[in-house]
Amino acid sequence: MTVVYRGKILLFTIEAHPLPCSYMARKRKTRHHRKPRSAGGSDDRENISWVTEKEHAAYNTLFRDVPPNKVAAILNKRWIDPEWVLIARKKRGYRKKRATFQR
Q1: 44-98 pLDDT, tens per residue?
Q2: Same domain? 72 vs 59
Q3: What is the pTM of this model?
Q4: Distance, CA of 28 to CA of 36 (rounded, Å)
Q5: N or C: lower Cβ tally within 10 Å for the chain?
């Protein structure tokens, strides 16, 4: 690859990464929409989480477009220690561009 910077030609070579592909797949980050686009979610920064491809695939396999309250119910029923309960509720005072909480 050749890159020109301020009139100077810089040369870069791209070499194969020495680590196995499975390691790179675990470390590569992808965009996860916290509120799915199919549910009206946006591409705004506060709606995006950067997760590994493996985490992203696992979440989508388990929950896809399931709303947070149903995700909590599934986790409580199948995964969480019965002595605990996971509760999902909508934030009060949440504004689209900035999260603020009213007391």
Answers
A1: 999 999 999 999 999 999 988 888 999 999 999 999 999 999 999 888 876 655 5
A2: no
A3: 0.58
A4: 21
A5: C
